[in-house]
Design a protein that fits this description.
Length: about 475
């Protein structure tokens, strides 16, 4: 829809001088706050937050306008101070401005780094980590365990090993994951200074600048050590145990016919992206899948019956038959519909003005898509708030962003390039947790009063850690 004359901005609540609508969005669960506001002002809503102009998208029809009709001019990311410092001046994939550098990195992802074959090549790593998880849980059968911790450590170990191979020691891994956790919190934190870009000194006054500088220095030192060690090891051992992600990037860097330069900093930025984009998101999804199955015993029984039938008599659920677990795969989809790991995906920024449904979207508007609200829209989902994996059983809806009612991985040009990686890291541990164990709630808690309250952190997680009792299952 092209129009020359300036149209009105999308509707939104009344704005106060200077702060605009900031006071209206403060609340513990911003995805709920924004959905409630959108119920009043519409699925394309304008909010002025300090100096920044924002459009909040809360329906699949409007998401289609962003990710399909206007995808080309909606594929930039806003400049976020924390991200800029931590991602080597936005030279990673996730925060890179739309342009040739970003295109080069995406090409590396789709041809080398995150291809189906590459993800498949990490099968052994996943199976080993999940086997460690099963043994660990088995040793506590009958007593209460903190399953959330075990899930996070399993998924992160899979990612660390895929990135750096088998040799990174436990201490190094712990230190790295703690930095990644700090980074996630710093980027997720609602930074007032980002809403007033003209007042640069705010970043220093709020203490953000110093904090970011410290974390960046630590993460940089750690990446330097890992890269140096890996180069030395390759030169020394000449081992050939399959390429990890860092190997791939170092090899590509050497290629002379690339047509662009992949610098040392770019490699660090991309590796950091894989951790930041991959570990918390996949762990959170797995945690919610277990929580929903505990809350819904009949879905749990169906998922367990399926995996116990397909893997009957086997000691371990490996990846050989995992594609046959149709119900399990629907459980993962239904989990991501109700609990997308990034409730607002990653913010976009328009590069040119455009018109959507008769409203003006000026250039440099931040576009925030409430994927959580879209996944629960009663206009498109029957019993929208109910966990019903069956709805995906005979449905063609996949993760690739073709159906705008289901966009946990985003859509358009900037859709998540790690979908295969993510789904493999969620399905295998889930299948094993269901095959080897029955699960009970402690202290007289029943599925009915099991608390599913959310908390807003780096991603939206279940408020309390999953405290559950595993009971070893013998076929
Ligand atoms: C359940 C797990 C995951 C979820 C829900 C998820 C979701 C997302 C979303 C919503 C975006 C923004 C897309 C957009 O702007 O339209 C994104 C971007 C991204 N994701 Fe994922 N992701 C997951 C796992 C992973 C994994 C495992 C990796 C890598 C191994 C990864 C790598 C990335 C990267 C590099 C980007 C930036 C893409 C760009 O800006 O061009 N993600 N992800």
């Amino acid at each position: 829809q092209k129009s020359k004359k300036t149209l009105p901005l999308p509707p939104g609540p009344r704005k106060l001088p200077l702060i605009g609508n900031i006071h209206q969005i403060v609340g513990s669960l911003p995805h709920h706050v924004l959905r409630n506001l959108s119920d009043k002002y519409g699925p394309l809503m304008h909010l002025q937050l300090g100096e920044t102009s924002n459009v909040i998208v809360s329906s699949s029809e409007m998401a289609k306008e962003i990710f399909k009709t206007h995808d080309l001019i909606m594929s930039n990311r806003p400049d976020i101070f924390a991200a800029k410092i931590l991602t080597y001046n936005n030279t990673d994939i996730g925060f890179s401005p739309y342009g040739s550098h970003w295109r080069n990195l995406r090409k590396i992802c789709s041809l080398e780094l995150l291809t189906v074959n590459r993800v498949r090549s990490f099968r052994l790593i996943r199976e080993e980590q999940v086997s460690t998880l099963v043994k660990d849980v088995m040793s506590s059968t009958g007593s209460v365990i903190n399953l959330s911790h075990k899930i996070f450590s399993t998924v992160s170990s899979m990612i660390v090993r895929a990135a750096f191979g088998r040799n990174s020691g436990n201490e190094e891994q712990e230190a790295l994951l703690s930095i990644v956790d700090d980074i996630a919190k710093l980027v997720a934190v609602f930074s007032v200074a980002d809403l007033f870009p003209s007042i640069e000194v705010l970043h220093a006054i709020t203490g953000m600048k110093a904090k970011l500088g410290r974390v960046h220095k630590l993460s940089d030192q750690m990446l330097e050590t890992i890269i140096r060690d890996q180069k030395e090891r390759k030169a020394r051992d000449n081992e050939n145990d399959g390429e990890n992600l860092l190997d791939v990037l170092l090899r590509i860097q050497e290629q002379k016919d690339l047509g662009f330069t992949l610098t040392h900093d770019h490699i660090k930025a991309v590796i950091l992206d894989v951790f930041n984009a991959g570990s918390e998101t996949s762990s959170t999804a797995l945690e919610w899948a277990m929580a929903e199955l505990i809350k819904n015993p009949s879905a749990m029984a169906k998922a367990q019956a399926e995996v116990r039938r397909v893997y009957k008599g086997r000691e371990f659920v490996d990846e050989s038959e995992i594609h046959e677990l149709k119900y399990l795969s629907s459980v993962v989809k239904e989990t991501l519909r109700l609990h997308p790991s990034g409730v607002f995906l990653l913010p976009r920024e328009s590069t040119e003005r455009c018109a959507i449904k008769g409203y003006e979207i000026p250039a440099k508007t931040r576009i925030v898509v409430n994927a959580w609200a879209i996944g629960r829209d009663p206009k498109h989902w029957d019993e929208a708030d109910t966990f019903k994996p069956e709805r995906f059983l005979d449905s063609p809806i996949d993760f690739q962003g073709a159906n705008m009612n289901f966009i946990p991985f985003g859509g358009g040009r900037r859709i998540c390039p790690g979908i295969n990686f993510a789904i493999s890291s969620i399905e295998l541990p889930l299948a094993n947790l269901l095959y080897h164990f029955d699960w009970k709630l402690p202290n007289g808690i029943t599925p009915e009063n099991f608390d599913m309250t959310e908390k807003f952190a780096a991603s939206v997680r279940i408020s309390e850690n999953l405290q559950l009792i595993p009971i070893g299952y013998q076929p």
